[in-house]
């Protein structure tokens, strides 16, 4: 029998150590440990909380929420949106809800509305003028479209509320 040199022991130790490290890396890679992702995105508005939007004149207001892409396609998310007329006169109101992602752009969302709203294309129109100092409920939920969201990304849901002076012709301006 021949003797094994000290340098051979070093090579054997290095090979065994590398095999063990390769095995651990493969195990962690297959189990998904390397791919875990936690987001700590902070926002003033939380999806699901009641939001009151005040309109004070002819113009538009918008409110946006962020939500993680871990929701299922077609899932309904509770969201209460109320609109208050703080103007000195009556206003016509229309609103829309969209979800935005960097890759896919803007897409419309289904909104849970009451019987006093009418949907035409991407907008929801309040059937009559909103009287001065009155409040109406716009949304009770939003329903995500039937597409898959990436759970590692965040998306933005935006509600856009537009107001028009009730003395103006909304059919000529808005087409409704």
Characterise the protein shown here:
18% of the residues lie in helices and 40% in strands. It has helices at 6-31, 170-174; strands at 51-55, 59-68, 76-85, 91-101, 105-108, 110-111, 117-120, 123-126, 135-143, 154-165. β4 and β5 (105-108) form a beta hairpin. The longest helix has 26 residues, at 6-31.
Q: End-to-end distance, in Å?
A: 98 Å
Question: Approximately what portion of the residues adopt beta-strand conformation?
Answer: 35-45%
Rg over CA atoms:
28 Å
Q: Which sheet architecture does the biggest sheet show? A: 6 strands, antiparallel
The counted number of beta strands is: 10
Q: Helical amount among residues, as a percent range?
A: 10-25%
Summing up helix and strand content along with how strands pair, one would put the structural category as alpha+beta
Contiguous runs where pLDDT drops below 50 for at least 5 residues:
none
| Shape field | rod-shaped
Number of helices: 2
Query: What string, H for helix and E for strand, traces the elements in order?
Result: HEEEEEEEEEEH
- Mean pLDDT over all positions: 84
């Amino acid at each position: 029998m021949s003797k094994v040199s000290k340098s051979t022991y070093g090579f054997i130790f290095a090979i065994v150590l590398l095999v063990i490290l390769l095995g651990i890396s493969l195990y962690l890679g297959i189990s998904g440990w390397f791919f875990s992702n936690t987001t700590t995105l902070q926002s003033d508005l939380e999806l699901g909380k009641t939001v009151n939007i005040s309109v004070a004149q002819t113009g538009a207001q918008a409110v946006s929420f962020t939500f993680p892409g871990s929701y299922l396609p077609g899932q309904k998310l509770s969201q209460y949106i109320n609109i208050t007329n703080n103007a000195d006169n009556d206003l016509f109101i229309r609103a829309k809800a969209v979800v935005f992602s960097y890759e896919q752009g803007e897409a419309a969302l289904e909104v849970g509305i009451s019987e006093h709203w009418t949907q035409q294309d991407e907008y929801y129109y309040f059937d009559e003028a909103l009287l001065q100092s009155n409040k109406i409920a716009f949304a009770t939920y939003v329903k995500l479209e039937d597409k898959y969201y990436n759970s590692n990304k965040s998306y933005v849901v935006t509600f856009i509320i537009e107001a028009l002076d009730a003395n103006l012709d909304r059919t000529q301006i808005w087409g409704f």
